[in-house]
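Before the break, one more example. Copy the sequence into your notebook; we will annotate it together after we see the structure.
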Amino acid sequence: MIPLHQHSSDEIAFIVSGRGRITIVENNIKQEEDIGEDTVLVIKAGIVHGVENTSREPLKIFSVFIPPFVPRGNPKNPKKLFSPTRRRMDCRSP
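Here is what the structure looks like once it is written out:
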């Protein structure tokens, strides 16, 4: 599960595999939508959202942030900060 959160960047997320449910809260209105393989999500900066896996298989998501999202705790060295890396975020059901 990815709990409700928000970013200062726009996010484009592609569901690589698995099934889940996205929750979006905008203007105090909560919306939920089922998502699955080949779904593309466009989430504007500042929108509160979260994702839950609704199946037994891993929910694999590939996300791009525009402008680039800089997670807290990254090194101050820009070469390390933006060097190619692979980060896995598998949402597994409990």
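Residues 21 and 34 are 4 Å apart (CA to CA). The chain has one helix and eight strands. Try to locate both features in your own notes.
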